[in-house]
Amino acid sequence: MNLLVARAARHVVYFALLALHQRTRWHSETERAACVQWALDSIAREVDALAAPTDPRVATLWATLRGCVDRFGEATGDAERRALLQEVASIGRRLVIAASSGSFVANVGAVLAGAWTYAQQLALTLLCGAVVVATLAYNAPVRSVVIGSRVGVTSLAVLSVLAVCLFAWLEPAGRRPFWSPFAVPPPGRTANGWLPRTSERRFLLGLASSLGAALVLLLAAALLLGVMSPEFRSPVTVVAGLGVFFLAAHAIDVWDYFDPRPVRFFGALVAAAVVWVSLGYTPDEPWDVRPLRAAPSHWIRSSQWPREGEGPVVLLALSGGGSRAAIFGSAALATLDREVPDIARNIQAISAVSGGSLATAGYLATRMGRVDARGYDAAMSADFVWPLLRAAFTPELRAQAVVSSWNDLLHVGDVSLDSLAQRWNDGTSPMLPVPILNATDMSGHGVMISPFEPAAFAADDRAACKEDQRSEAAWVCDRDESHAIQDLLPGVDVPLLSAVRASANFPLAFPLIPVRSPGPIPGHAQIGDPTRTRLTDGGVRINSGVDPLYYLMLSHREAIRRRGAVLVVVDAMAASRSGAVPGEWEILATLRRSSVSNVQRLHRMMVTRLAAEFGGRFGCVRVDAEPSSLSGVPTSWYVDAQERRTVRSHFQSDRWAAQRNALRWTFDAVGAASPEPDEVLVEGCLARPSLQ
After folding, report:
1. If pLDDT is split at 50, 70 and 90, which confidence band does 480 have?
2. Which of 12, 99, 217, 578 could pair with 5 as two cysteines, CB 3.0-4.6 Å apart?
3. Is the dihedral of CA 530, 536, 542, 544 positive or negative?
4. Would you tell me how many other CB atoms lie within 10 Å of the CB of residue 504?
5. Do 635 and 506 touch, CB atoms closer than 8 A?
6. How far is CA 61 from CA 88, 97, 114, in A?
């Protein structure tokens, strides 16, 4: 019996609080009177439908409540009726407590029942709150923009305080009954769901206006912070987007609280459909390629590389890792130019991945006089998440927005693989390193985008593998297959920044690049249409950029034996560990994401093979930062000013001084023409890097 009384008392509190709160929203006396009368009539029906309880404590409160109901007819003025509703709400709360309490077990059950009621009322709010927290904690791009930077944390704190104020001030209709633990709407409330003179349209307009006011204030705060500093634009936009998502979920909870229809169910279906479509369907964005003006033989031929000169050939491998890799790689290139110019002049090829590809494009821009050192530094430091966010709210395509922002900073929109090949073959212009920008196709094969003809990478290892197609190990050859872009798209010229986009085509941030070859693509026989594939980030396969240089050196054995070669591995990823001793789950997650151990083993095998092939005419130096110094810098396309200073500080450190001295010594030793192998020349690249 007491449970029935507690349920009826909750309904009474619901009607009383709803009328007290909503009456303030009506402008006319008639509307306010109708609102109060509706509540009084609803309360009277609840009380009349239930017999008096037998429990003395409950019976006393129930009698008091009946007395209030009996006075409903005597209350005439607005103030008197309001006071009566407040008294009813107070008695109802005490009645709920008295009817629900009893033994310890009963009290615990009542508390749990109340918590469960709250959870039901706030189902979408709690679910979306958990999604927001999980996104901030586990989604790497979002975490790096919001949690991984001081600007992001500041934005989160400011907008969180604003959101709390909005909850207190602009809570949608029905704040008091919705948040009261004693107020529960009656079931089957079709007749009583909407207040008198309150149409569904009016209720929803009120709900939308409150939510709209909250959005306007959030966007105003975002705009204000963005005007204060461009560094705030991306963090504030991401935080505001998460806040809007949370507020919309809460608005649906409030709507469902008052509406007898399954509003949340249909809202969840719509949200699931939107998420499914947004993740499962991404329209293809065209890749900016153009017909080749010259004959295919115009590419840099094997006989034309390397250029003759004094000293060993220097080859650079720049790792991926978003803006961190771009800043670290650009700082390495600029420092080499400044501190060891004789070595920098001999750089004849740069193989890069993702952020390292952007650093390579910027380096070529500086060598061509398109930007100065300060402009190169500013270009690598820019916020490249902002163009993606801007494109989400404009007709502009995401990839094109980012490529346009790169071109605005580097001014190399007219530079393409064809123009770089012409410049190299000319021999009259100052030598530029040949870029090899690495992407990955959907079968896991590497795609090398460079001005080299495909034969430049045709080492004996690869040729023998191709001839062995009938063996049981043929699938290994297919798995290890790497393609030059000319193999996939003969007769096509690729602009330099489009090549950077393919190399830095981070999944979900950019749509995959569709490619259709005129003939079957090697290693794609198991695919329904072996002439089609898609390109994504080069770091999906191998994030270091070393493997194209391995094949390039083996296919130019005579030139390398004659002049010698120094491989410089600029690794911005070797520092991405979170502590001195990684935890078990961190190690497992890292291994699962990138197969780190296999890649490290492959690197050591490549370096060992090159050392055996060329003896003392080959050296390898690794340039990486102390893990503890860069572990807190994210690998997304956004880093704040403090993080940028942290990345560049490596090149004023003692560690860099030792690496520079090792590079100088290796360059001189390789140039001394000693044919005997020397393990000291490659020991820096054979050391096992950090697991994290």
Report:
1. low
2. 99
3. positive
4. 31
5. no
6. 11, 11, 20
What is the predicted pLDDT for the residue at 641?
79
Measured distance CA(690)–CA(573) in Å, rounded: 9
Contact call for residues 383 and 322 (beta carbons, < 8 A) = no
Closest by CA to 385, choosing from 236, 257, 530, is 236
Mean of pLDDT over the chain: 77
Per-residue pLDDT band for 464 (boundaries 50, 70, 90) equals low
Q: Select from 451, 617, 457 the least CA-distant residue to 553.
A: 457
pLDDT band at 328 (very low <50, low <70, confident <90, very high): very high
Nearest to 439 by CA among 608, 280, 610, 289: 289
CA torsion angle 392 397 401 404 (round to 10): -170
Q: Measured between alpha carbons, how far is residue 573 from residues 537, 632, 640 in Å?
A: 15, 12, 18
**Dihedral over Cα of 69, 73, 74, 80: its sign:** positive
CA distance 691 to 174: 54
Neighbours of 646 (CB within 10 A): 18
What is the reported pLDDT for 28?
67
For residue 224, pLDDT beyond 70: no
| DSSP string over 62-105 | HHHHHHHHHTTTT--SHHHHHHHHHHHHHHHHHHHHHHH--SHH
**Model pTM score:** 0.76
Categorise residue 184: left if φ over 0, alpha if ψ from -120 to 50, beta otherwise: beta
pLDDT tens, residue by residue, 184-208: 666 654 444 555 555 555 566 666 6
Confidence at residue 420, expressed as pLDDT on a 0 to 100 scale: 92
Question: Residue 458 has which token pair?
Answer: 């045709």
Q: Is the dihedral of CA 246, 252, 258, 261 positive or negative?
A: negative
**What's the maximum distance between 2 C-alpha atoms anywhere in the chain?**
112
d(CA 633, CA 622): 20
Residue 153, helix vs strand vs coil: helix
CA angle in degrees (0–180, nearest 5) for 301-306-309: 145
Q: Tokens at residue 593, please?
A: 């994401």
Strand locations in 443-520, DSSP E? 446-449, 482-484, 492-493, 513-516
Which residue's structure tokens are 């198991």? 526
